[in-house]
Write a structure and sequence with these properties.
270 residues, alpha/beta, Metallo-beta-lactamase, Chain A, six-stranded mixed beta sheet, 11 helices, binds zinc ion
Length: 270
């Protein structure tokens, strides 16, 4: 290791091996390509539609080797058959969803890791939005691909899981290092910001962020990636155990799960 300290170029390669290309699929689904510079391997995070992903591959000049699936919803997996036929990419998906995701080659669960050349992602099980949802966390590169579990200033709807499961999943994600870049399945940040301000109106960081989001969206720019540090300060769904949020909801002393349940119910009605 002593040699590395005197070789900053090599250190940079070791510390940051992956490049990201983010683009929209349809109105608000994010397409994300992650490219390992050393090996040339490239993964798409989910595959809602094949055509825009194939266009993105052409634009970047990257060759698809892997499809990393977060959950079985159609807007995340419908493009898999066409994409796999076109590229031969290997499909990694939650083991428990291997019958609900097309053409799975590799089923994964909590504690497993997947590699893309020299880039490694740990699998974090995050049930709530769906029963078997997973996130991909690249510790060395400081990247989190959270699918539809954690959004910037919001979280996914509970289609298959309980509020207690989702709150537990969000606690896992909020414990990652503050500098971790958060990539999500959807561009929902502006509507999430509006809701967040209704339950946390005095939060200066949130108010500032909402202004930045409005400016970004006004010029059609993306609001993602965010960071875990920013989300911990600004996202009310990560703060269901913060007495300030409970008090704002008129639920002082209530359990975090009850506060989370109320936050999610209010957002569903918003
Ligand atoms: Zn979904």
């Amino acid at each position: 290791m002593a040699g590395l300290a005197f070789c900053p170029a090599l250190w940079n390669i070791t510390a940051m091996a992956a490049s990201i290309h983010q683009f929209l699929i349809g109105n608000d689904n994010y397409g994300i390509l992650i490219h390992d510079e050393a090996s040339g391997a490239t993964a798409t995070i989910d595959a809602g539609e094949a055509a825009p992903i194939l266009v993105a591959l052409k634009q970047t000049g990257w060759t698809l080797t892997d499809i990393w699936v977060t959950h079985h919803h159609g807007d995340h997996v419908a493009g898999i058959p066409e994409l796999k036929a076109a590229t031969g990419a290997k499909v990694t998906a939650p083991l428990a969803d291997k019958d609900r995701v097309p053409l799975v080659d590799h089923g994964v669960k909590e504690g497993d890791s997947v590699t893309l050349g020299s880039t490694r992602a740990a699998i974090i099980e995050t049930p709530g939005h769906t029963a078997n949802h997973i996130a991909y966390y690249c510790a060395d590169d400081g990247l989190l691909f959270a699918g539809d579990t954690l959004f910037s200033l919001g979280c996914g709807r509970l289609f298959e899981g309980t509020p207690a499961q989702m709150w537990s999943s969000l606690q896992k994600l909020r414990a990652l290092p503050a500098a971790t870049k958060l990539y999500c399945g959807h561009e929902y940040t502006q509507s999430n910001a509006r809701f967040a301000l209704t339950v946390d109106p005095e939060n200066a960081a949130l108010k500032q962020r909402a202004r930045e989001i409005d400016a970004l969206r006004a010029k059609g720019a993306f609001t993602l990636p965010s960071t875990i540090g920013a989300e911990n300060a600004e996202n009310p769904f990560l703060r269901a155990d913060d007495p300030l949020i409970a008090a704002r909801l008129g639920m002082a002393g209530a359990s975090p799960v009850d506060v989370f349940t109320e936050l999610r119910a209010r957002k569903n009605r918003a």
